[in-house]
Design a protein that fits this description.
alpha/beta, Fumarate Reductase Iron-sulfur Protein, Chain B, domain 2, Rossmann fold, 4-stranded parallel beta sheet, 8 strands, globular
């Protein structure tokens, strides 16, 4: 590692943290460890030491940054408006440049190649059936051997399908598409150019790769129709293209992006009504971090779901579940410890079904034995039973 580097963080942003500590209760890694190095305040202090004081990027610094879930739960709690997410992304990018060998480079580049990703996913699905893969320990869901192709039904809205979710959970996209179509809207589907939003690459410090994926995605999802997203992490990334690319085109693109529940809540009068099933089905809603803290769009989930189920709010103030995109695979022990607090909140709720609008969250919670579904999968099943 180089002894002196610049992390590329805006000095004013770096100085904006006044170390008040109001972020600490909202940081999942601090809640689990109780250690300052695992808190936003401690991580910002370490960033200052590297960028302002010339401290080396040593193993302690790498561990502090790599163990951050990047949930951004600290941002809404911060009275100074510290942009911790962008500071962490800049730090990860510099750390990635400093690393001599990083296996994440080739792994995340795979996400923008849908044919190869689908082929490897089918191979992984076969290996799972032969019990050659420790799926639970690796945080993997049961990957389908085959999936039905989605068919476009119009051009009123786009449905962003992404990479891993399309390869592993396309049935969720199909359910979401049916619910949107139940409002009378026609759904357009993107081509291979929008195979990945770039979120995982950005979080891993592969900023150049993330930007190239953003440019590809923007070209594919052209026009002026709203872009609906059913994955909270993808939606957050798409909504921040304007910030990351800094172009008028990217800003205009991001303004078209909506979490699918935002769009459905705005068109709730067009959603079909059902009988008494809303009183029979009790569902606890887990808010994905990037929907709650980044998009600030978690409330429409409960609003839409409440038309079809008895919705229970968890009492943990939106605390992270520990999934964090690829975090659960890279930091399994910390991710499991963070998840345990979420499991306690679920048990207190008394609900037998949990809804979460992010694939990483559903996979991470399901691996702990939770009956968890995407909210619109639940809605789709209720609508289907009433047809």
């Amino acid at each position: 590692m180089s002894a002196r580097v610049s992390l590329g963080i805006n000095p004013e942003e770096l100085a904006s943290c006044v170390a008040c500590g109001l972020c600490l209760p909202h940081c999942p890694t601090f809640r689990v460890t109780g250690e300052e190095w695992a808190s936003p305040r401690g991580r910002i202090s370490a960033m200052r030491q590297v960028q302002d004081q010339g401290a080396a990027i040593d193993q302690a610094f790498l561990s502090s940054m790599d163990t951050c879930v990047q949930c951004r739960g600290c941002e809404p709690a911060c009275p100074s408006g510290v942009p911790f997410g962008s500071m962490m992304e800049a730090t990860q990018a510099e750390m990635n440049r400093q690393r001599r060998v990083d296996w994440r480079r080739w792994r995340f580049r795979l996400l923008g190649r849908p044919r190869l990703l689908n082929l490897l996913s089918r191979m992984l699905a076969v290996a799972q059936r032969l019990r050659l893969v420790p799926s639970k320990r690796l945080g993997l869901p049961k990957i389908p051997l085959r999936q039905d192709r989605l068919q476009a039904s119009g051009d009123d809205v786009w449905l962003f399908t992404g990479c891993v979710m399309d390869a592993w959970q396309r049935s969720t996209h199909a359910a979401v598409k049916r619910v949107v179509e139940a409002t009378g809207a026609g759904v357009a589907l993107p081509g291979a150019g929008a195979a990945c939003c770039g979120a995982l690459s950005l979080h891993a410090g592969l900023d150049d790769h993330a930007r190239s994926l953003a440019v590809r995605t923007m070209k594919t999802l052209d026009g002026s129709a709203p872009i609906l997203v059913d994955s909270a992490g993808c939606g957050a990334a798409l909504k921040e293209y304007g910030k990351h690319l800094g172009t008028l085109e990217a800003i205009a693109f991001s303004e078209r992006v909506l979490d699918v529940h935002e769009w459905l809540a705005a068109h709730a009068d067009r959603l079909p009504l059902v009988g008494e099933q809303a009183e029979e089905l009790t569902v606890a809603v887990h808010d994905p971090c990037h929907l709650r803290h980044v998009q600030r769009a978690h409330e429409p989930v409960a609003e839409v779901l409440a038309r079809y189920a008895n919705v229970v709010t968890l009492d943990d103030d939106g605390l992270c579940c520990g999934a964090g995109g690829a975090y659960a695979a890279m930091q399994p022990d910390l991710a499991a410890s963070i998840r345990e607090r979420k499991l306690e909140a679920i048990r207190r709720s008394g609900a037998t079904i949990v809804a979460s609008a992010n694939p990483g969250c559903t996979i991470h919670l399901a691996n702990a034995g939770v009956a968890v579904r995407h909210p619109l999968e639940i809605v789709d099943e209720v609508l289907d039973s009433d047809r």
